[in-house]
Amino acid sequence: MSEAIEDVLISIPLFNGFTNEELRVVASRCNMIEVEKGELVFKEGDKGDYMCFVAAGMLDVLKQSEAGKSAPITTLTRGRSIGEISLVDDYLRSATVRANKKSSLITLTKTNFEMILEHHPQVGIKLLKGLTRILSLSLRKTSSQLADALLPMG
Question: 11 is in which domain, residue-wise?
């Protein structure tokens, strides 16, 4: 199973620059799961303790509106990730993720992430830097979308 996970991780931009051995370390701490179309991966407000990489399929990310309706935020395809924040903080999930079609996901739990940091610090640092880049890009995108939404209609 670890080899199948490695084969997917190598194609994910976060892992650019990782050696085969470093990928093996990460893959050995990950699991592969299957979710059916319509199945929830996680729900907004749940406690988060893992992140996911999309190995195959498609996930919809939904955010609860003030009116209590689910608003679509984005759709994730192969190579994209979700739930990264849960590896570094103890807050509740900030969105709901549902499988748009049958999907294969690679999961990394907070416990396994911390084990990588403890037992393989150089790999952990690379992984942490990659996660930071993902979160930074997400924040930049969100800030731009907010600025666009706040501009007066022309």
Answer: 2-144
Residues 97-147 pLDDT 10s:
999 999 999 999 999 999 999 999 999 999 999 888 888 887 787 777 778
Q: How many domains does the chain have?
A: 1
> Which residue do the tokens 């993720």 mark?
97
- Tally of CB atoms within 10 A around 35: 19
CB atoms within 10 A of CB 29: 21
Give CA–CA dist 27/6, Å, rounded: 6
Residues 31-47: tens digit of each pLDDT = 999 999 999 999 999 99
Residue with tokens 């893959």: 27
Angle, helices 20-28/121-150, rounded to nearest 10 degrees: 80
Residues 12, 53 contacting (CB under 8 angstroms): yes
Considering only CA atoms, give the Rg of the chain: 16
pTM of the predicted model as reported, rounded to 2 decimal places: 0.87
Domain CATH number, residue 110 = 2.60.120.10
What distance in Å separates the CA atoms of residue 61 and residue 119, rounded to the nearest whole number? 33
In a domain, 66, yes or no: yes
